[in-house]
């Protein structure tokens, strides 16, 4: 008869079992947390979930706007209809197109946003290069004064600028937006100069010294070497400048008067214009929400297309300058 095993004796696990258990434990840790603790499945899942949530917060207004714009009046009044309408109503866009005088207002909007943005992008690049690469008396003071202009509200200088433009007979033309842009001023010009200064400081001095050795002067170095490698800063500055000029309604109404009107200005008077165009002989008291959303989407559509083509330059400029333009 065999002796009973001693109570409390430890059970010995084979070495190969311990090795396999350690192997699978390490593999599970690497899968969840990664080898460096920053590339594992758990962290990636958390990051992607956070990006999806943030992305949805930004995209939700556009999705809501698009959903509402395709609804008929019956779908709007029916509480059982959610995001997807029963039928797509293209008539909303047709009415919004005519009320906004879209093609005429689009041409005016482009004229008052593209030309000032191009002038501002060009002049701010030259000023930013001077601040970034050259030394001259009073440079810190001038740079500080330039930055102060960024925090001065436009309402403070609005009346003096209006009187000056009136004296030079520039009112009711795009010149009040274009001329300041030619001198690195205009809407938030100091921010674009700062973007260029930060970007140009990342360019090695050895590159410009090599160009000087090859016989290139200051202008040739700037136009042939510096500008071609500064495309991200140029694109982002142009994009922000165009968007701010595009969305400007107060100064546009002040400077342009009744001679010209932009799409954002048309949107401000959309309700009254719709009544004047479609309410004749009908009891129309207000624009239904679908037509208003269609008009709003038509106005932001050019900017969305512009952002779509320029988005890859944003990360490059933010990485090199630390500025987001907000």
The chain-level mean pLDDT equals 81
Question: Radius of gyration in whole Å, from Cα?
Answer: 30 Å
> How much of the sequence is in beta strands?
under 5%
Euclidean distance between termini CA atoms: 87 Å
Low-confidence stretches: 322-326
The gross shape turns out to be: flat
Question: How does this model look, in words?
Answer:
The structure is a single chain. The chain is an all-alpha fold and 326 residues long. It has a domain at 103-321: Orthogonal Bundle (MetI-like fold), CATH 1.10.3720.10. 70% of the residues lie in helices and 0% in strands. The chain has 18 helices and no strands. The radius of gyration is 30 Å and the shape is flat.
In brief:
This protein is 70% helix and 0% strand.
Topology record:
Layout: H1 15-33, H2 41-69, H3 73-77, H4 91-99, H5 102-111, H6 114-133, H7 139-151, H8 154-167, H9 175-182, H10 189-200, H11 205-213, H12 218-226, H13 231-247, H14 250-256, H15 263-268, H16 270-278, H17 289-310, H18 312-321
Helix pairs in contact: 2-17, 4-17, 6-9, 6-10, 6-13, 7-10, 10-13, 11-12, 13-17, 13-18
Features:
MetI-like fold, mainly alpha, 0% strand, 326 residues
């Amino acid at each position: 008869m065999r002796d009973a095993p001693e109570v409390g004796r430890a059970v010995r696990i084979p070495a190969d079992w311990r090795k396999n258990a350690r192997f699978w434990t390490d593999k599970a840790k690497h899968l969840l947390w990664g080898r460096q603790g920053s590339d594992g499945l758990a962290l990636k899942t958390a990051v992607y979930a956070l990006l999806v949530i943030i992305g949805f917060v930004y995209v939700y207004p556009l999705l809501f706007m698009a959903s509402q714009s395709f609804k008929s009046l019956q779908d709007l009044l029916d509480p059982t209809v959610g995001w997807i309408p029963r039928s797509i109503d293209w008539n909303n866009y047709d009415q919004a197109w005519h009320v906004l005088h879209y093609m005429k207002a689009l041409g005016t909007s482009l004229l008052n946003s593209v030309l000032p943005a191009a002038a501002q992008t060009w002049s701010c690049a030259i000023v930013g290069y001077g601040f970034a690469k050259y030394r001259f008396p009073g440079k810190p003071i001038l740079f500080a004064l330039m930055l102060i202009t960024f925090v001065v509200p436009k309402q403070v200088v609005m009346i003096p600028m209006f009187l000056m433009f009136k004296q030079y007979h520039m009112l009711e033309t795009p010149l009040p937006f274009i001329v300041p842009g030619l001198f690195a001023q205009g809407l938030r010009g100091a921010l674009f100069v700062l973007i260029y200064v930060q970007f140009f400081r990342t360019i090695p001095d050895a590159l410009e010294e090599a160009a000087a050795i090859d016989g290139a002067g200051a202008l040739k170095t700037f136009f042939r070497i510096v500008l071609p490698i500064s495309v991200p800063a140029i694109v982002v500055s142009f994009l922000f400048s165009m968007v701010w000029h595009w969305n400007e309604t107060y100064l546009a109404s002040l400077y342009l008067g009744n001679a010209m009107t932009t799409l954002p200005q048309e949107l401000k008077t959309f309700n009254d214009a719709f009544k004047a165009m479609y309410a004749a002989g009908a009891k129309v008291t207000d624009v239904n929400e679908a037509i208003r959303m269609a008009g709003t989407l038509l106005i932001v559509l050019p900017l969305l297309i512009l952002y779509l083509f320029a988005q890859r330059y944003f990360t490059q400029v933010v990485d090199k300058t630390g500025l987001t333009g907000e």
